[in-house]
């Protein structure tokens, strides 16, 4: 028999006309009803917007970009660009076909990471 972990279960109510029914697992454990759920690496909110996911991956990629800029003290643009393409860009592009961007603010959030990296690399490298 398959054992289901009650702590890992959640219910996502999608839509305005959904009645937000409370569900139980077993006899006494009430399943939680969060505003958003992470499924297969993609953060899905109950209004199906991608804003929370875009903010999450932008923060994660920005941490990686700052780590790259702190780790490599040389001003070699090719080295920094290769490190960006290897470590930061896959974070931004992961599952992009699922959360395809439609909102301008989400596009700007993702593009700010690349703009930040480009600005820092060009500012700190000697010509």
TrEMBL record:
Name the UniProt record assigns to this protein: Alkylated DNA repair protein AlkB homologue 8 N-terminal domain-containing protein
Organism of origin: Micrurus corallinus (Brazilian coral snake)
